[in-house]
Amino acid sequence: MALELVLGILTFLAVAALLGILIYQLMCLSDLEFDYINPFDSASRINKLVVPEIALHVGLSCLYLVFGYWLIFLINVPLIYYHGRLYLEHRHLVDVTEIFTSLNREKMYRLIKLAFYILLFFLAIYRLVEASVHALLDNEHA
After folding, report:
1. What region does 68 belong to: left with phi over 0, alpha with psi -120 to 50, or beta?
2. For residue 18, how many C-alpha atoms fall within 13 Å in the half-sphere facing its CB?
3. Which CA distances in Å does 104 have to 18, 30, 32, 37, 99?
C-alpha cells in the first residue's frame, strides 16, 4: 500500500507539472495574440517545453502501465499516439514563420490537451486520496 501512495504522489506531481507547462504555453500564445510578445520569443518559449512535456506524459503513462492501471493507461494512449506522430513527422515544434497563421489551431490543440490533463488531474487526486485512505486503514489494523 505504501507503494501505491508513492505512485499517487508521483502521479499528482507529474500531472500538476503537465498542467503548468500547458498553461504556460497557452499564456505565451495569448501574449502573442495580443501583441505583448514577438513571435520568435513566443515560439522559443513554447518549443523549449514541448519535448519535456511529451517525455513527462510518456513517463507517466509508463508508470500506469508498470503498476497495472490499465484503464488510465488506455485513456492516455490516444494522446501518446498523437504526440508520437507529431514528433516523427517533425511537426511537434511551433514554427516562427507560420505562428500567426496557425495561432488558432495551436490554441485549440492546447485547450483540448488542457481538458484532457484536467481529467487526468482529477483521476490523480482520486487515486491519491484512495491510496491515502487505504494506507491509513492498514496502519490502524497493524
Report:
1. left
2. 27
3. 21, 10, 11, 16, 9
Which pLDDT tens digits describe the chain residue by residue (142 residues)? 688 899 999 999 999 999 999 999 999 999 999 989 999 999 999 999 999 999 999 999 999 999 999 999 999 999 999 999 999 999 999 999 998 899 999 999 999 999 999 999 999 999 999 999 988 888 777 6
Cα(86)–Cα(71) distance, integer angstroms = 24
Instruction: Please list, in sequence order, all residues whose beta carbon lies within 8 angstroms of the beta carbon of residue 35, skipping any fewer than 6 positions away.
Output: none
